[in-house]
Amino acid sequence: MPLALTVFFVVLGVTVVVAIVGYLIDRSAGHESKEGR
Amino acid sequence: MDPTHLHLLLNHVPTVGFGIGVAMFVLGLAGRSNDLKQASLVIFVGVALITIPTYVTGNAAQVHLQDRGEVSDGKTEGMVTLSLIETHEGAAFLALGFMEVTGALAWLTLWRFRRTLNVSPGMNGVLLVLSLATLGLMAQAANVGGMINHPEIRGTEDMTTFAGHLGRIAGDYVRDTPWTWIAAETVHFVGLSMLVGVILLIDLRVLGFMKQVSFAALDRLLPWAMLGFAMNTFTGMLFFAAAYGQYVNNPAFFWKLIFVLLAGANTLYFTFDRTWALEPGRDAPMLSKAAAVGAMFFWVGVMYWGSMLPFIGNAF
User: Is B220 close to A7, i.e. CB distance below 8 A?
Assistant: First the structure.
């Protein structure tokens, strides 16, 4: 059981970090140039 | 050609190839040339991909030398020591980490460039520092690697670098602690879902499904796919470092790597493909459709060869 909990929280932590990084990347691409199209 | 030959062939790419990329990037900065900068970023991404097979074939070369009895545990005249090989592995492990981060940021910069038509001064600075650090670390790894094959430049004392035997430390940690492999395996599947989920959406739109959705909206999801790819590269390298003996003689593993490289090159194509700028309702050109079919084939191939690791090559 402790092993399952450890794995669960590690995976949860990694997923949260990835979600935050993905959100920041997406936000940084928010201002698009019309010329860019 | 076996993996040992491949290592000798590929090991110049992360130093010489990347060095050319860094020189072009510096020239692009000095001459304020976006074309040069973009070209150098493509080189960064390409070399980051090629560095993966360069690294893994290094362990294959080690196993080859050990099988031939040419590696000694201590100091034996004319023989290479296991410690020197593991020093090379450690320096390469650290350099590989820097290379993959540089490649990921270079791809992100290319992706952002076509939306914003500029590279921010901050990103220019980060890429410059990171690429120079990567080049230095790669040169150090190459220097130690050269000593393995060239006794004439080998010193009397065992060479060490500040990375120590990092590859072995990380690999042994993953192998010997119960939670790391299982957690990395779970993260590997999360990354796979993100990667293939987004790529499949984009490919289906290019092929003519969901025409009411704009390409730009789907293109915006592409960094999530690359985050998935980064997660899988990281966890995949942990698996490899922990149990390289299961992979270096495994044909399924090398086929998986070939498909990863082809899929990576395909993703790079979509970074420049003009389809993304088409309005909703418009059809993609035939070349883009062919690339989309290629992407689906390559990524399914990556999953297929990954699944075949235990069945064809007797891993695990």
Answer: no
Q: Give the tens place of pLDDT for each residue, B269-284.
A: 888 777 777 788 888 8
pLDDT tens figures, B240-255: 999 999 999 899 999 9
Three-state DSSP state, B131: helix
Cα separation, B20 vs B26, in Å, equals: 10
| Residue numbers in B near A6 (CB within 8 A) | 179, 183
Q: How confident is the model at residue A32 (pLDDT cuts 50, 70, 90)?
A: low
Q: Are residues B119 and B179 in the same domain?
A: no
Q: Look up tokens 């909206």; give the residue.
A: B217
Token pair belonging to A9:
């929280």
Provide ipTM, 2 decimals: 0.83
Spell out which residues of chain B touch residue A26, defining contact as CB-CB under 8 Å.
220, 223
- B108 and B157: one domain? yes
Q: Inter-chain contact A29–B186, Cβ cutoff 8 Å? A: no
Task: Specify whether B139 is located in the same domain as B1.
Answer: yes
From the list B117, B183, B220, the residue facing A7 with the nearest CB is: B183
Domain boundary (B145, B164, B183) is at B164
